[in-house]
Specification:
This protein is an alpha/beta fold. It is built from 8 helices and 7 strands. It has a 7-stranded parallel beta sheet, sandwiched between helices.
Length: about 240
């Protein structure tokens, strides 16, 4: 895809991978609409010149409000990047049901509803793309983040089916599978993390070459292991 001149709607674009991705897409000549929910980050993104749409996509109302805000705008690319993690580990505590509901809404329901709400707009564009950001944990889960892994696996499965459904249309479907990236969500992790700028750069390259799947960083190794032995890949990841 040629990114110059494209109108991109990027969820979760005021921090982490999303903010770096917004900057790099703008450098390629795209017009980027970003979403965010934290007032300080929203103002900081506006100060960089981005158009920011305030939306808490962890609620159904946030999704419907965002769709209303972009109604009639010629969106060429939807990037479902917003996501969150939560501990869901019965070895340490009973999981927080309210937190589980928010992550299910944000990581699964919101992308699906945004795709549905923007489908006719995307169908009408000369060239369009849907980018769903999942995770290496969609391939093989770890132990302590059961809900997060399940949401990313669900979005990965949905993305595969969606790509097949749209294969004869002008809408390309790309799945991005990052490793652990150095963001606010992983601040408490001590293991090796990929810089968010590097992750964003791989996403941009995948978009430009119309890739179906972008395995980022260490996920490339995980995919190779999984192709040889899915059971071994699962054993490795479940050790964490």
């Amino acid at each position: 895809m040629k990114l110059e001149g494209k109108l991109v709607l990027l969820t979760g674009g005021t921090d982490g991978i999303g903010l770096r991705l917004a900057r790099q897409l703008r450098d390629k000549g795209a017009q980027v609409l970003v979403t965010g929910r934290t007032p300080e980050r929203i103002e900081a993104a506006k100060a960089e010149g981005f158009e920011v749409l305030a939306a808490d996509l962890a609620t159904p109302e946030g999704v419907s409000g965002l769709l209303s805000a972009v109604a009639g705008r010629p969106v060429d690319v939807l990037i479902n990047n917003a996501g969150m993690g939560v501990t869901h580990d019965y070895r340490t505590a009973i999981p927080d049901a309210a937190a589980d509901e928010r992550i299910l809404q944000l990581n699964v329901h919101a992308p699906i509803r945004l795709i549905a709400g923007l489908m006719e707009t995307l169908r009408g564009r000369p060239e369009a793309m849907i980018v769903n950001v999942t995770s290496g944990l969609a391939i093989a889960p770890n132990t302590g983040s059961a809900i997060y892994c399940a949401t990313k696996a669900a979005l990965r499965s949905y993305t595969m089916s969606l790509r097949k459904q749209l294969e004869h249309t002008r809408i390309h479907v790309l799945e991005v599978l990052p490793p652990v990236v150095d963001t606010a969500m992983t601040a408490d992790r001590t293991n090796k993390k990929l810089a968010p700028e590097a992750c964003a750069a791989e996403i941009v390259r995948a978009m430009e070459r119309n890739a179906d799947e972008a395995n980022v960083g260490q996920v490339k190794f995980l995919r190779r292991v999984y192709s040889i032995s899915p059971a071994l890949a699962r054993r490795i990841m479940l050790a964490f």
